Amino acid sequence: MKNNTLFSRIWSFLLSASFGIMMVGFFLAIVGLLLFMRFRHYGNWMPVTFTTVAIVGFVLYFIGRVLGVVNRNSQKKRKNT
Description:
With 81 residues, this protein is an all-alpha fold. The protein has three helices and no strands.
């Protein structure tokens, strides 16, 4: 398998953008929680929507953290070889 496949290019982009993914996830989680607290008594769909935004934000934050650790470990391996 070649090193220049689409998957390897996407993977290298995700590794390089891990801090940005983490920050976007953090921002979404905070905004979702704040909006949920503001509109929690406003009907049926608004709290559900903002809870979903907060959950997506936490998932993106976690993915960004994991990608950052993977990127840091792969850089250490490259330096040692």
